[in-house]
Specification:
Elements (H helix, E strand, L loop, with lengths): L13 H58 L5 H22 L3 H72 L8
Helix pairs in contact: 1-2, 1-3, 2-3
């Protein structure tokens, strides 16, 4: 058997350093996809979870906007159908996330966010439109009421004048009787 004794760093040949570097390089090349894919999968998982949370907030915000439009008397039946579609897409995203299909979950979340955003903006427009028509109706009611009050007051004065005139005419037509006493 041959015994190898290394006395210092000068005894290690250049060939063995390059072999050692080559071995480490080959291990790095073959092992890096494993670490990168695990890291990217974790990033995809976190990104999908964050996107789902954002979509849930978007659906809740759209629901609140539809509720506000309904409170002012707007017809929100079409918005509720679209909001229901957004909720179904959110449920599909949660199912895909649970199955580990993060790309599919992200796709559902994207469509869900678009639908809920459109519902929210349409609800705000409907609310403003309904409030505008309500304001117009209130102004119209105010004007009609004021005209009605003026007509009633004017008719009252005319009626009072007529009654007063008749009273005075009747009073003048009466013959006073003198009684002796």
């Amino acid at each position: 058997m041959r015994e190898c004794v290394i006395n210092g760093s000068d005894d290690v040949g250049m060939m063995s350093v390059s072999r050692l570097f080559f071995v480490f390089f080959v291990l790095l090349v073959f092992a890096s996809p494993i670490f990168v894919s695990v890291g990217l999968a974790e990033i995809d998982k976190n990104a999908a979870a964050s996107a789902i949370d954002g979509a849930e907030a978007s659906v809740v915000s759209a629901y609140e906007a539809v509720l506000g439009a309904e409170e002012v008397g707007a017809n929100v039946s079409g918005l509720l159908v679209r909001l229901n579609d957004a909720a179904e897409l959110l449920a599909e995203a949660n199912i895909a996330y649970g199955l580990g299909q993060f790309d599919e979950a992200a796709g559902f979340v994207g469509v869900c966010s678009e639908v809920s955003g459109a519902v929210k903006s349409d609800a705000f427009e409907l609310r403003v439109e309904t409030q505008g028509s309500r304001v117009w109706e209130l102004w119209l009611a105010l004007i009609v009421s004021l005209v009605g009050v003026v007509v009633v007051v004017f008719a009252g004065f005319l009626g009072w004048g007529y009654v007063k005139k008749r009273y005075v005419e009747r009073a003048l037509e009466m013959k006073p009787e003198v009684s002796e006493g």
